[in-house]
Write a structure and sequence with these properties.
With 572 residues, the chain is an alpha/beta fold. It is 46% helix and 8% strand. Strand 1, helix 1 (31-54) and strand 2 form a beta-alpha-beta unit. Helix 1 runs parallel beside helix 5 (130-139) and helix 15 packs parallel to helix 18 (477-500).
Length: 572
């Protein structure tokens, strides 16, 4: 058995919340996408292109959620990113002049100018179509793309309003298909969050496999014989892969994870906070607050130590050394597993894609080096996608995973805990009301039909797991609270317009503006959007009863309501 082939499956989860503000020329939160593009998605695509051309062969599973795919395809956001990239290129060029003759930092400024130029070349090579670049590798068999729930909804949080689970899953598959142009067979469950009660809904959406956290499989019923190192299959026919603990710890752990190495780039030390404002060429927020520019001149160095200059060459060598260490440990781990298992073991190593390049600048170098090291091994370890593993080994142990997520504590405290608990009753009210609205006005046409379809989009955006996550983390809380309020309030008014059937004058202008702003899933027809809600399971409300709309008293947790008074262009 020790000579049987064993497998390593690297899985990247690429997701950002849908943030699109045409009403602002340089909206602060839109920079999340631009920073992720220049630091993560373009470097990854560059690495994929390089390996495809020069080797080694690679096999990677990667989710691209519908919100992220929609933003990457959006012409407005692509044009704005092109402008953003031009600004940071100019800033890097200016920094070379400012630091001329500085032996410590001038080489780093030159490095950034070359880095941004290389990302510009990747962007231009693919015509600004990053999704299309990923699809080309998918078509070549090197990459397998997964979808997600429509707006990365934390599905266990929807159990009190079960009618919202099926639309999230089905529209996640259908929307991905329309945006990306290919039909996915697998999906990433947002936050790896699973509950056995919606297992059949996953299968009904056409999802054949997914990933859960380690304890989801370890505590499955019945207990699987091979633990987390072989997939299990539920009664509904969905295959579940489990996250491997060891490989996760080596990358994620704050204490022993590779990204904490002293020679890697320090994410938090940015010239946007260090330099006087005139030196930043306008890369500050509208209110004068400082922003990340992407030009970071220091390495992590160590705790309680004076920061030392970043050395890109040394950091690159460290990334290659860590890749060798990672592969050596996987080889030892898989050799041990193969001696005790009656089927080929698989180590599934899933990570947030944004870790590679954004948070851990050297991450794409590490990833490419892992595949190069795997190609040099001669002891039967193969990189594989999750779908390819199932095609080769279609026989699975039948077991139903336990309720679980990959959040802190392994369950749902991040998304339904104290900081975000207040939002869920509004989400549940909105879900029930939207389902009732669709059931009673499914045949709406003209402007009423447009309002109904937009109400569905507002609900999906309201259900995003990003807003409770931000509230828990305490980062952009004002923005998350505003998004929750605005989607709930827009949905309520859209419902009113659908119910009255009178949309003209200023109301029609507002509807036109709203559809242009929140243009998520515009590629889906009204019938496709509505069908998912009409066919959803019946909720606890009596058929035909009008549930309460959302957002009537949506105050933000412990904060005074007046702090949430933000003009988002809502109707009176």
């Amino acid at each position: 058995m020790s000579n049987r082939r064993s497998y390593l499956a690297l899985v990247l989860h690429a997701h950002l919340p849908f943030v699109r503000h045409p009403e602002h020329a340089r909206h602060l939160e839109e920079r999340w996408l631009y920073e992720a593009l220049v630091e993560c998605y373009l470097p990854l695509l560059d690495a994929f292109d390089r390996m495809a051309e020069k080797g080694p062969t690679f096999a990677l599973t990667m989710s691209v959620t519908p919100p992220l795919a929609a933003m990457l395809k959006d012409e407005l956001l692509r044009r704005r990113f092109d402008e953003y990239l031009g600004r940071v290129e100019a800033l890097a060029q200016k920094e070379m002049g400012r630091l001329y003759g500085d032996a410590r930092f001038a080489p780093i400024a030159t490095f950034y100018r070359e880095h941004f130029a290389r990302m510009r070349a990747v962007w231009d090579r693919h015509g600004g179509d990053v999704v299309g670049g990923f699809v080309r590798h998918w078509d070549a068999g090197r990459l397998d793309l997964l979808t997600c729930s429509a707006t990365h909804c934390y599905l266990p949080g929807m159990l009190p309003a079960r009618g919202g689970i099926r639309p999230q899953l089905e529209l996640g598959v259908r929307g991905f298909e329309r945006i990306v142009g290919r039909t996915p067979t697998g999906a990433w469950l947002a936050e790896c969050a699973y509950d056995p009660s919606f297992d059949s809904e996953i299968a009904r959406a056409g999802i054949r496999f997914t990933v859960v956290d380690t304890h989801g499989v370890l505590h499955a019923r019945p207990r699987p014989p091979f633990g987390p190192h072989a997939p299990v299959c539920s009664e509904s026919g969905v295959a579940f892969f489990a996250r491997d603990v060891e490989s996760g710890k080596e990358v994620w752990s704050r204490e022993v994870g590779y990204p904490g190495d002293a020679y890697y780039r320090d994410f938090y030390r940015d010239i946007g906070f260090d330099l006087p404002e005139p030196d930043l060429m306008g890369e500050v927020a509208a209110d004068g607050s400082r922003l990340m520019t992407g030009l970071k001149y220091f390495r992590i160095t160590g705790r309680d130590a004076e920061k030392l200059p970043y050395q890109p060459g040394v950091a690159r060598e460290r990334a290659m050394q860590h890749a060798n260490d990672f592969v050596a440990k996987r080889a030892k781990q898989l050799k041990s597993l193969a001696q005790t298992m009656s089927q080929p073991p698989i180590v599934v190593a899933p990570y947030d894609a944004e870790l590679f390049g954004h948070w851990w600048f050297e991450g794409p170098i590490f990833l490419e080096a892992v595949y190069r090291k795997l190609a040099d091994l001669a002891d039967g370890i193969e990189a594989i996608t999750l779908r390819e593993y199932l095609q080769r080994h279609p026989v699975c142990t039948q077991a139903t995973p336990s309720a679980s997520s990959w959040g802190a504590g392994g369950y749902g405290v991040v998304w339904v805990g104290r900081e975000a608990a207040w939002i869920w009753r509004h989400v549940h009210h909105a879900t029930r009301y939207t389902r009732w609205l669709v059931q009673n006005h499914r045949g709406a046409e003209g402007t009423a039909g447009r309002a109904l379809d937009q109400a569905i989009r507002e609900l999906l955006l309201l259900q995003s797991s990003d807003w409770p996550f931000i509230l828990k983390m305490g980062t952009a809380t004002r923005y998350a609270e505003a998004r929750l309020r605005v989607h709930a309030h827009r949905l309520r008014h859209l419902g009113h317009l659908v119910e009255t059937g009178t949309i003209e004058g200023s109301e029609l202008a507002w509807l036109d503006d709203l559809c242009a702003r929140d243009n998520f899933f515009q590629a889906l027809t009204g019938d496709e959007l509505r069908r998912a809600f009409v066919e959803s399971p019946v909720t606890s409300e009596p058929e035909g009863a009008r549930p309460r709309p959302a957002g009537r008293t949506m105050n933000a947790g412990p904060r005074p309501a007046e702090l949430m008074t933000i003009d988002w262009g809502d109707p009176p």
